[in-house]
């Protein structure tokens, strides 16, 4: 069986792409590596933020939905995103930065056994900075040197992702029995699962909570994508998901990567996505994120698509 090396990306909803761009580029210091559109609805921006090239495991992505209402929090949802920072000193730096920039945040605390700093973006999306404490990160994660954040404290990539569900056991079995995640801790209402034991960059924290399902809106999380190396591995997981009885979307070519989607028993939407070809498939590294990029099948509709989108710096 192949091993899942970690998270690939995570996708959210935003009401306002301009405000979203301001927060993730100028406050969090991430690079906008791709300004494109939702391939299923090309009159909706799809923005990607990450490291220098948007390496797998660093990507936060947002669909702009101007009509999005507020999120009504509940269960059966992906509820928090962890972002890795280098050290304890980094958490102090970020706490001070958040205070200066009026970002909603809590005190430095402990999360899943690590030092952490919870905060929210401008639309109420829950995030948490996690002390990576010098642990190894993928060699292809490369810092964006034009970031406004102190180089010693820049966000490295994705860490623990929290999922809240009514039935913890069902999600735990999906992660362990299909994908080979390791259960590293378990209590009655919380389990911690790692795709590679000892590595937080593929960690999922599952919390059990009864009650109504979350009603998505601005600042809600749409899906989590987990990472595979290539087309061969993706085909393997497509079969594995279907053998388990889940409905697979089948393999879809997103141009920047190939992927498939499925929902587990609580209704959580997962994507499985390949590492490549990556965001430099239609751009130089220097030009990433600066203009509207469209996959080849949408390029003939560029004029129509651009006319339907609000300008975005």
What does it look like?
Strand 3 (41-50) and strand 4 form a beta hairpin. This protein is an alpha+beta fold. The longest helix has 13 residues, at 88-100. The protein is built from 5 helices and 16 strands. The termini are far apart.
What descriptive keywords fit this protein?
alpha+beta, 16 strands, 17% helix, 8-stranded mixed β-sheet, 313 residues, 5 helices
Mean residue pLDDT: 98
The percent range for helix content is: 10-25%
The unreliable regions are none
End-to-end separation in angstroms reads: 44 Å
Number of helical segments?
A: 5
The best one-word shape is globular
Total beta strands: 16
Q: Which structural class is indicated by helix and strand composition?
A: alpha+beta
Strand content: 25-35%
Largest sheet: 8 strands, mixed
* SSE pattern, N- to C-terminal: EHEEEEHEEEEHEEEEHEEEH
Q: How many whole angstroms does the radius of gyration measure?
A: 18 Å
Major beta sheet, strand line-up: 2-3-4-1-13-16-15-14
């Amino acid at each position: 069986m192949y091993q899942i090396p970690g998270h690939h990306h995570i996708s959210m909803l935003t009401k306002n792409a301009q405000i979203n761009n301001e927060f993730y580029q100028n406050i969090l210091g991430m690079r906008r590596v791709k300004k494109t559109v939702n391939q299923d609805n090309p009159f909706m921006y799809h923005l990607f933020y990450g490291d220098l090239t948007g390496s797998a495991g660093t990507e936060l992505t947002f669909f702009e939905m101007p009509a999005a209402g507020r999120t009504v929090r509940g269960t059966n949802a992906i509820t928090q995103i962890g972002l890795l920072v280098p050290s304890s000193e980094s958490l102090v730096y970020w706490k001070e930065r958040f205070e200066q920039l009026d970002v909603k945040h809590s005190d430095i605390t402990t999360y899943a056994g690590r030092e952490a700093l919870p905060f929210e973006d401008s639309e109420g999306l829950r995030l948490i900075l996690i002390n990576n404490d010098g642990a190894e990160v993928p060699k292809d994660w490369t810092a964006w040197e034009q970031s406004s954040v102190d180089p010693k404290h820049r966000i490295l990539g994705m860490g623990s992702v929290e999922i809240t569900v009514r039935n913890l056991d069902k999600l735990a079995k999906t992660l362990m029995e299909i994908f080979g995640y390791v259960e590293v801790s378990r209590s009655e209402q919380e389990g911690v699962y790692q795709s590679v034991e000892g590595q937080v960059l593929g960690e999922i924290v599952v919390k059990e909570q009864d009650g109504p399902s979350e009603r998505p809106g601005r600042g809600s999380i749409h899906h989590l994508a987990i990472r595979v190396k290539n087309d061969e591995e993706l085909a393997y997981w497509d079969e594995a998901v279907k053998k388990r009885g889940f409905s697979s979307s089948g393999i879809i070519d997103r141009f920047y990567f190939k992927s498939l989607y499925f929902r587990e028993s609580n209704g959580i939407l997962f994507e499985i996505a390949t590492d490549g070809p990556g965001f430099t498939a239609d751009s130089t590294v220097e030009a990433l994120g600066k203009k509207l990029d469209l996959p080849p099948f949408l390029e003939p509709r560029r004029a129509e698509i651009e006319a339907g989108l609000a300008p975005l710096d």
